[in-house]
Design a protein that fits this description.
Two copies of one chain form a homodimer. The first copy, chain A, is mainly alpha-helical. Chain A folds into two domains: about 1-45, Orthogonal Bundle (Arc Repressor Mutant, subunit A); about 60-190, Tetracycline Repressor, domain 2 (Orthogonal Bundle). Helix content of chain A is about 70%, strand content about 0%. Chain A contains eleven helices and no strands. In chain A, helix 5 (about 80-95) crosses helix 6 (about 95-105). The radius of gyration of chain A is 19 Å and the shape is elongated. The N and C termini of chain A lie far apart (about 65 Å). The mean pLDDT of chain A is about 95. The interface of A and B includes residues 147, 163, 165, 178 and 194 of A. The structure holds a DNA duplex (18 and 18 nucleotides). Chains A, B: This is TetR/AcrR family transcriptional regulator. Chains A, B: InterPro entries: Homeodomain-like_sf, HTH-type_TetR-like_transc_reg, HTH_TetR, KstR2_TetR_C, Tet_transcr_reg_TetR-rel_C_sf. Chains A, B: Keywords: DNA-binding, Repressor, Transcription, Transcription regulation. Chains A, B: Pfam families: TetR_C_24, TetR_N.
DNA sequence: GTCTATACCCAGATAGAC
DNA sequence: GTCTATCTGGGTATAGAC
């Protein structure tokens, strides 16, 4: 089999197993079984189990930060940027379901892998984009100044990044639909407005 | 040492280790070290590592559901109930930091432990309380009917249960303060209201 | 109730034939 | 590049002395 393809296969199967059982609970032998080779063969592609994890996270962070930069480049209104960042979270979570789940589950373990792989700085770009959108909105009066912007950020971040755990895009509700609904709730609130 | 006290010690140290490293990555020997005994001694108190986890979760779920029933008993307005349920999440997370973190990290593993321990039904009480408060609010017109109540529930649940990861109660901001702030954001939104 | 010692298993990783 | 076989370490759990 084409080496590149096999490598891809190892990454994909690993991502799936890591996501569903956790990294520690997933064995090299299980990964090999899924790929259809013997465990020794995996070591021709990656020097260790940890190296597989690092590679998965690198691909994910690279793509995520790239897409994030596109969003901040087209400087829209604060509300538009929040909706775009919410959609970014939903769609990258879908495209990198394995990596995202690992990221959620194994917080501090992943932090270490990131620092090792020199990706910590890149990983922080998304947070800065959120905080900038929020700060701009407060500055221009679009957002209230009697709400702690830090609290607002943490709440919407958790809500958005956890969302793929209960939402799968369907024909009835796409990721874009959900991003819009989330933005409506956080920006306008659940209580009816007088109009 | 008093057996009951030692048992308590084992539970507390285990909770701390499980929460910070994950269950699979925490070894019986580590727990024993923390308690200050040899690993064999632990087996006089619990038949297995899993039994420790189950016991931790049982204590937590029992207390949580008890406090939840108190809230639903005093039937307040929907907004008050949401604030009370938010505070419930924040304060039980503080009182059971270990158990809560385990609960967050090891979702599907914990589900199995719950079913085994016959606690699944109890664990669902909190969800029902949230959904009832939301449905009542929509029915009486306090909440908008053009927002999917299911989406609203999932968002506020994730936001509230993740909050202890970034918030520790201080003299400047207590859990009650944060619960109020969270409720304000979700109910009234981040955009200023005309008044 | 705790310690010492150890059985037993399964993990990650390696070596060499093909 | 893959398979077979195996090394080595560390995990849970147990047994028996004290």
């Amino acid at each position: 089999m084409d080496p590149h393809e096999r490598r891809r296969q190892i990454l994909d199967r690993s991502a799936h197993l890591f996501a569903s059982k956790g990294i520690a609970a997933t064995t090299i032998r299980e990964i090999a079984d899924e790929v259809g080779v013997y465990s020794g063969a995996l070591y021709h592609y990656f020097p260790s189990k940890e190296a597989i994890v690092t590679e998965l996270i690198r691909e994910y962070i690279d793509d995520l930060s790239g897409r994030c930069r596109e969003i901040t480049a087209q400087s829209q209104t604060p509300v538009d940027r929040i909706e775009a960042l919410a959609l970014l979270a939903l769609s990258t979570s879908e495209d990198y379901r394995g990596a995202t789940t690992i990221w959620q589950r194994e917080g501090e373990y992943m932090r270490d892998r990131l620092v090792e792989a020199d990706l910590a700085e890149t990983a922080d770009e998304v947070e800065r984009a959120w905080r900038a959108a929020i700060a701009d909105g407060v500055a221009e009066g679009t957002f209230r100044d009697d709400i702690d912007p830090d609290v607002f950020y943490q709440l919407i971040r958790d809500a958005v990044w956890q969302a793929p755990r209960w939402h799968r895009p369907t024909s009835e509700r796409s990721n874009a639909d959900l991003a819009r609904e989330i933005t409506r709730i956080f920006v306008d609130g659940f209580r009816p407005r007088a109009e």
